[in-house]
TrEMBL record:
This is Methylosome subunit pICln. Keywords: Cytoplasm, Nucleus. The keyword tRNA processing does not apply. Pfam families: Voldacs (PF03517). Its main location: cytoplasm. It is found in: Cytoplasm; Nucleus. The keyword Metal-binding does not apply. It comes from Basidiobolus ranarum. Belongs to the pICln (TC 1.A.47) family.
């Protein structure tokens, strides 16, 4: 799967600073951003965090919960800037993988198997909603 739950961020380098081939080059970051997923994941999983755009992945990481996602570009089937009902804008993404199953499997490991929770989704929708409506 090209979407991964992360507990820490890689070390980012600015363009031109890279000293080794494996460097993760940071192109953009947007702090104080909410990530909304559909289908929803357990409440409180992510909280507010920062979106990081690199040359090969998009990261979302919440220092509140020490949890985030690393999303490789090939798994982003579609993306667009969208307007929220509240008047702000967001970045809408449709992922080719369903990450809901990933969260179910993680929770089943702790709580036992539950077939009632299975959702037959082939993709995940997510929205990055910055608190700063003028972000861009």
């Amino acid at each position: 799967m090209t979407v991964t739950i992360i507990r820490s961020l890689p070390t980012f380098q600015q363009p031109g600073e890279a000293t080794d081939e494996g460097a993760v080059i940071l192109r953009y970051s947007q702090p104080d951003t909410s990530m909304l997923l559909s289908p929803e994941v357990p409440a409180g999983t992510f909280g507010k965090g920062t979106v990081y755009v690199t040359e090969s992945q998009v990261y979302f990481f919440s220092s509140e919960t020490s949890t985030g996602l690393a999303i490789e570009y090939p798994s982003i089937a579609m993306h667009a800037v969208s307007r929220e009902e509240s008047g702000g804008s967001c970045v809408y993404c449709q992922l080719s993988d369903s990450i809901h199953q990933m969260f179910l499997e993680a929770s089943q490991g702790q709580n036992g198997d539950s077939e009632e929770d299975e959702i037959d989704d082939d993709f995940t929708e997510l929205r990055f909603v910055p608190s700063d409506s003028g972000a861009g």
